Amino acid sequence: MDTSDTNKIKELLSTAKNIVITTHKNPDGDAIGSSLALSHYLNSIGHSATVITPNDYPEFLKWIPGESSIVKYDSSVKTANIMIDNADLIFTLDFNHLSRSGDLETILEKAKSTFIMIDHHQQPDTYAKYMYSDTGMSSTCQMVYHFIEKLNDLDKITPEIATCIYVGIMTDTGSFRFRSTTSTTHKVIADLIDHGADNTQIHEKIYDTNTLSRIQLKGIALNNLKVLPEYKTAYITISQKELDQNSFKKGDTEGFVNIGLSIEGIKFALIFIENKGDAIIKISLRSKGDFSVNDFSRNHFEGGGHHNAAGGRSYLSLNDTVEKFISILPSYKNALNQ
Ligand code: 5GP
Ligand code: MN
């Protein structure tokens, strides 16, 4: 987004607008945090902004300021359609392609509103009139901070906005440890604390609210962990039956993929989770260093994301998916052993 785009956006926002903010399916901390932060900011400067998510999100996000006002498309189709029809502006946050918005895709494709994208995923699509895309950014939340900064409104950051932005930077950086965490990220975090984000409380609310069944499911994941030393790879499988036996709720498997990556010498970690409802195997991929899981997932599992963190899917059975994965690995032996 260059200065001319910033000026055009300033002009657009100089009169009251109906605004819809939407994000990707199965929203995570960055998706919810960035959408709510932006909605608080836009409402505070005189607009009428609403967040619409394609579907529900984990319990551990259901305390973020403004969360109760979110419209979930899958349970409020009519309301959401009217809002999208009436929107002057639609912000799409934390995704790079309309197909990432699940059942919202068709209605967003038809919408006549002006689109503004704020996103940090690789290979962004070009559906938006204004694109603020930066794949080097830690999170879309950090970008919302810089967006407010570009509009010279940092003094309008309230404790609520600071809290929302803090959540997404924290979750997308693995608590400020991934490569995307820069000195600027830390400066932004410092400013958010100065604006009223209670860092200790936010960490506790996101990470220390496990249920016993979730910890037990983690035990299953640990038990199912397989290591392939010759490929510096580790993977976990979880079947639908294992999920059902442990009262699985959305978000319960969040972070499990990192268990494999924490083993010494492992560069590539995956988790394959059976989802009978959607008739897919959901795959999460993580890597360390030069190995691109964005490329790997794009090439083999209809997904993508970032260099070191991506998602994907398979329509085969859980066993066949793992077999396919293992049959592909030899062609990456060199890349994984560099
Ligand atoms: P996760 O493994 O946590 O679901 O996703 C890791 C990262 O990859 C996130 O930034 C997420 O937005 C992105 N991602 C997950 N699934 C997909 C997918 O199917 N396609 C694309 N392009 N990105 C994905
Ligand atoms: Mn993100």
Automatic annotation (TrEMBL):
InterPro entries from the UniProt entry: DDH_dom, DHH_sf, DHHA1_dom, Oligoribo/pAp-PDE_c-di-AMP_PDE
Pfam families cross-referenced by the UniProt entry: DHH, DHHA1
Domain DDH: 18-169
GO MF terms, alphabetically ordered: nucleic acid binding
Domain (DHHA1): residue spans on this chain: 245-322
Protein name: Exopolyphosphatase
Organism: Aquimarina muelleri
